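Hi all, long-time lurker, first post. I run a small reading group and we've been trying to get comfortable going from sequence to structure in the token notation. Rather than ask abstract questions, I figured I'd post a concrete chain and ask someone more experienced to write out its structure so we can walk through it together at our next meeting. Sequence below, copied exactly:
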Amino acid sequence: MDQNKTLLAFVGSLLIMLTFQNFQVMPEDLVGLQPVDEKLREVHARELLGSQYRRSDAAQKSDLGDLHFKLYQEVRTQLPKNHRPKAFRLTQAILKESAKFGFDPVFVAAVIKTESRYNPLAIGGVGEIGLMQIRPETAFWITKKYKITFNHKNELKDPVKNITIGVAYLDYLRSNFPDKAYRYIAAYNMGPRNVRKLIAQNKKPKEYSTQIFKHYKETYARLTSRLVNTEALLSAQN
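-- Answer (accepted) --
Happy to help. Here is the structure in token form:
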């Protein structure tokens, strides 16, 4: 019985992989991807979207089954061609770190899209490095606070380490601006001190958070249109 279940899971996973790549077998073992914690995803999506959540693609649960597989497809599609072999590792890092801190992984993907257009080697105008465009001084500070091993700024060119540090920094900012999502989103771009200055002046930082929400909603729109019914695929082999 257990052997039949194992065979069924293998066949189903193979069919999923074939479907995701237009019937070209992929090099990664997608079975190892960490599933999305739906409760955590929904809580954060509601936090981000507020009253817009119910009418959003983020609320279309029937279209978001096997979201971890769909997110892999999104990451692989967005990456520059020469970096696509890293898609599995990057997707796994997004899923793992998002679950650790209670983020919607699609939000993390939107930050990456906004910051670097998925270029792991991107360098910003003031020294930001990698997928999540982290400044080395920020990396040294936040890794010490979160007890993440980090010894040299070049480690930020490692996309997995970059995601690990970037999501930890988002968690720190979220804990410092718990009332309004747009505040910690803006702080990721302009720094918490500048956001507090705007708040003190009764001003709302909008430009960067608007970009993030744009990519967040666009990513969900793509994910809900990429329907892969894995239950049906598995049932067909029963």
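A couple of things your group might point at:
The chain has one domain: 27-227.
The radius of gyration is 19 Å.
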